[in-house]
Amino acid sequence: MTTNTILLIILSVIVAAGLSYFQYYYKARSKSKINLLLAFLRFSAIFGLLLLLINPIITSNTTVVEKPTLALVVDNSSSVAYLKSDKLATELYSKIAANADLKEKYTIQSFQFDSDFLPFQQLNFKGTQTHIDAVAKDLKAINKNSTFPTVLISDGNQTSGNDYVYSFDTSNKVFPIILGDTTQVLDLKINQLNVNKYAFLKNQFPVEVFLQYSGTKSITADFQISQGNSVLSKQKVSFSPTKNTAVVNVLLTANKIGSQLYKATLISTEKEKNSYNNTKNFAVEVLDQKSTVAIVSAINHPDIAAFKRAIESNAQRKVVVVNPKQINQLTDYNVLVLYQPTAEFKVVFDSNKLVKTNTFIITGTHTDFNFLNQQQNNLEFKMTSQKEDYLAAFNSQFNLFAIDDIGFENFPPLQNPYGKINVKGNASVLLSSKIRNIDTQAPLLAFSENQGTRAAYLLGENSWKWRLESHNQNDSFEKYDIFIDKIIQFLTSNTAKKSLVVHHESFYNSGEAIEITAQYFNKNYEFDEKAHLTIILVNSKTKASKSYDLLKGNNAYKVNLDGLSAGSYNFTVKELNSKASYSSRFEILDFDIENQFVNPDVVRLKQLASLTQGKVYFPNQVDSLIQSLLEDENYKTIEKTSSSRSPLVDWKWLLVLICSFFAIEWFVRKYHGLL
User: Fold this and answer.
1) Contact at 8 Å (CB) between 82 and 594?
2) pTM higher than 0.85 for the full model?
3) What are phi and psi of 200, to 5 degrees?
4) Are 226 and 183 in contact (CB under 8 A)?
5) Side-chain-facing half-sphere of 551: CA atoms under 13 Å
6) Is the pLDDT of residue 340 over 80?
7) Mean pLDDT, to the nearest integer, of 120-125?
8) pLDDT range class, residue 110, cuts 50, 70, 90
9) Could you write out the three-class secondary structure of 56-72?
10) Is-contact 498 400, C-beta < 8 A?
C-alpha cells in the first residue's frame, strides 16, 4: 500500500473512534459496561465503511512447489505377450511407479499404448497394433513448453504410424527399457507384400514380395504362392548372413471373377522359433471387363478393320460389325461405334433414345451432318461440300481419364468436309484440329457426358493411317491400340448417379480399422443430413447377423466394425425413410501383424535414446535407471512465488460484516431500552 493510503486508514481509525466516543461517552447519560460494547460495534462498522471508501489494494504472495514430470509409458500390444514379456512389463511398471524416492522428486504420469495412447488403466496385452509415433505426439501435446524425461517400456516393434525415432522431442530424454529376448535366432520372414487391389479377368497382375532372413549360416528356402490346393508359382531363394534380404516378383493370371484369396509362403527345412511370419495371405478383386462393341456402318472402309483390330487387342472386348438396317437388340451391346451416320441410322438413333447405350460417333466425307445435327445436342455442324485435311493437336489439360500423347501431331491428317463445328454441351476436347499448322479452334476428338450417358466424337476418316504410323514409329500397334482401348473403357463405364453411395474395401487384414462410409442424396442430388442409415452384417459361414446405425460425420455417414474375426461377410446398407439399399461383401484375412516378430527392435530403440540424449536399459538394469533419474540434475523441483493484488471493495464478506455490526448494535440498544 502507498503512504497516502496508510495515512487515510489512520485518519479513518481516528474518525471512527471519535464518532464512537462522541455517541456513547460524551453524550451518554450513563456510562455502563454496555457502552463499551456499543462503542466497539459502532467503531467497527464506521471503520469498515471508511475502508470501503478508501478501497486499499491488498497484495498476497503464494508459494507453489512444482515437481518435474516423469512420463512412464508401457506397451500394451500383443507382441509383448508373444515375446513372453507381459508379466515382466507389469512388474517393471509397478516397480518404477511405486518407488517412493521417484514419487518425491517427480510427478509421475502413467500411460499405456497399443493402437491408441491412453492414461494407464490395466494392462491386458491384447492390442492389435503398436503405434509408438502416437506416444511421441500426445506427450508433446500434454506437456507443452516443459522439459521432462520419458521411460518407455516396450519391444520397439511398431506396426503403424511414422518412424517414431524422429517423432520424439530431442530436448526431452527418452529411456527405453527393452522387452523381449535380444538373442538372435534363425528366422525367415515375409516382410512386405505389394499387390494391386484390383485386376481384370484373364489379365496378369504383378505381386512384389520382400523377404527377410536373420541367422548366422547360409540357407536356401522355397517361396511359393498358392490358391486353395493349387500352387501357382514356386521358386528357390538363397540367403546368407551378408545377403539377408530378397525381392521376388511374380506375375499371376486372374482366372475367376470376384474376391480371390491367395497365400504367399516361405518354406525351409530349418527349425524356426516363429514360423507364423513365413506366411502372408492376400486378396485381389477380379473384375469382369468383358464387353461387346457394335461397329455400325453402311459403307466399307479401312477404318472399320483398324478399329476392330485395335478394340479386340484387349481379350475382354468383342467387336461385331453390322449394317444399320440389320441391327436388332441394342441391349446386346455395351458401346455403339456409329461410323459416318446418315439417314439410314435413324432406327438406331431412335432405339438408342430408350436404351441409352454410350456411343462413339466417327464422321467423314460420307456423313450426313444435317441428320447428325438432329440426332444429338453436343456438337453443331455447319459443313460445306469441300473436303479438307485436319491435323491433330494434343490437349495436355485433358483430365477425363489418363492418356499419353502417342505422337498425335506427327500422324497423317484425317479427312472431313470443311466447315465450322461449335461445341454446344459440356464437351472435353482431347485433340483439336489444325489445317496446315493453323489452329481452327475446333475439336477433332471430343467427349461429352449428359445425365449419365457418354459419347465420343472423332471428326474425320482415315484413322487407319494413324494405327499404321504408330506401328512405323514404335514397331508395334500397342500404343495406338491402348489409345482406342482407353476410349472404349470410358464409354463402357456406367456413371449414373445413385441416391445411396457406399465406400468400402473388398478385403481387410484382421486387426485393421474396418470403416464403411456412405452418402445419401436427395432428389436434387444434395447430401441429406436427415437420412437414417443402418447396416446389417452377416457372417457367411455362421450366418450370425448384427445391425448397426451409421453415424453422421462431415458429409458422410460412418460405421466402425473393428473387432470382427477373420472370414467372409455380406452386408446391406439401407436408408430407412426412402428404402434405398446397397448390398455387397468383404473379406477379413487371417493376419496378426503383432505375431511377426521374434526379437525386439533394439536398433531403433538405441537410435531413439541416442537422439534424445537418453540411454537404453534392459529389465535387469531397472535399479540403475531409477538411480540415474534420481541423480539427474537437469530435473529439479522449482518453487514459484506468485503475487495477487485485489481491491478491498471485492471482499464481499466485509460488507456483510459491516451490516452485522450495525444490526448487532441495534438489537443491543433495543434490548437495553436505549432506542
Assistant:
1) yes
2) no
3) -95, 145
4) no
5) 5
6) yes
7) 92
8) very high
9) CEEEEEEEEEECCEEEE
10) no
Rounded alpha-carbon distances, angstroms, from residue 153 to 117, 481, 619: 14, 59, 9
Q: Nearest to residue 175, comparing CAs of 145, 204, 153, 142?
A: 153
The residue type found at 181 is D
Q: How far is CA 228 from CA 216, 231, 253, 262, 263, in A?
A: 34, 8, 15, 8, 8
Please indicate whether residue 83 or residue 61 has the higher confidence score (pLDDT).
83
What percent of the chain lies above the pLDDT cut of 70?
Answer: 97
Phi/psi of residue 490, each to 5°?
A: -60, -40
What sign does the CA torsion over 191, 196, 201, 202 have?
negative
144: exposed, middle or buried (Cβ count in 10 Å: 0-12, 13-18, 19+): exposed
Rounded Cα distance between 599 and 609, Å, is: 18
By C-alpha distance, which of 450, 390, 397 is closest to 421? 390
Helix (H, G, I), strand (E, B) or coil at 80: helix
Measured CA to CA, the distance from residue 325 to residue 336 in angstroms comes to 14
Q: How confident is the model at residue 668 (pLDDT cuts 50, 70, 90)?
A: confident
- Looking at residue 644, the DSSP 8-state letter turns out to be E
Q: What are phi and psi of 172, to 5 degrees?
A: -115, 120
Q: Which stretch of DSSP H or E encloses residue 439?
A: strand 438-450
Cell of 178: 527393452
pLDDT at residue 594 is higher than 60: yes
DSSP per-residue letters across 220-255: EEEEEEEETTEEEEEEEEEE-SS--EEEEEEEEE--
pLDDT given for residue 523 in this prediction: 67
CA atoms within a 13 Å half-sphere pointing along the CA-CB vector of 525: 5
Cα–Cα distance, 69 to 637 (Å, whole number): 10
- The pLDDT score that the predictor gives to residue 312 is 92
Amino acid at 119: P
Q: Give the model's pLDDT for residue 137.
A: 92
The strand ranges marked E within 43-196 are 57-66, 69-75, 107-113, 117-119, 150-154, 174-178, 187-195
Q: What is the pLDDT of residue 1?
A: 63
Phi and psi at 176, nearest 5°, equal -75, 135
Check residue 435 and give its pLDDT: 92
Q: What are the angstrom distances between the C-alpha of 382 and each of 349, 368, 371, 437?
A: 21, 11, 12, 22
For 165-199, the pLDDT digits (tens) are 999 999 999 999 999 888 778 889 998 899 887 78
Over residues 642-657, mean pLDDT = 77
Cell numbers 461449335 correspond to 422
C-alpha cell at 257: 471373377
Phi first, then psi: give them for residue 311, nearest 5 degrees. Answer: -70, -40
Q: Where are the alpha helices (DSSP H) in 393-477?
A: 464-474
What would the mean pLDDT of 533-539 be, rounded to a whole number? 94
Q: What is the pLDDT of residue 183?
A: 78
CA 480/CA 40 separation, integer angstroms? 111
Would you state the cell numbers that stand for residue 607, as one nine-digit string? 537410435
Q: What is the reported pLDDT for 42? A: 81
CA–CA gap between residue 77 and residue 180 (Å, rounded): 13
- For 665, residues 6+ apart whose C-beta sits below 8 A from its C-beta are 38, 41, 42, 45
DSSP element (H, E) containing 308: helix 302-311
Q: Is there a contact between 148 and 68 (Cβ–Cβ < 8 Å)?
A: yes
The Cα 569–Cα 513 span in angstroms is: 15
pLDDT of residue 371: 95
